[in-house]
Amino acid sequence: MAKDAGPSVLARLLFVLLGCGFLGAAWVWSHRSEPWAARLVDTVRKPPAP
Fold first, then answer.
1. pTM of the entire structure?
2. Average pLDDT for 31-44
């Protein structure tokens, strides 16, 4: 019997986690007018310290 030719279980898990992270970031970005989300957005947008 031939093995499934799709991505491995680890790759699928990674894709799901990346998707959840992207959706979570988009949700926080859409709520950036709220104080708790504004702090997160400002932290991300601040340039890194040298």
1. 0.62
2. 85
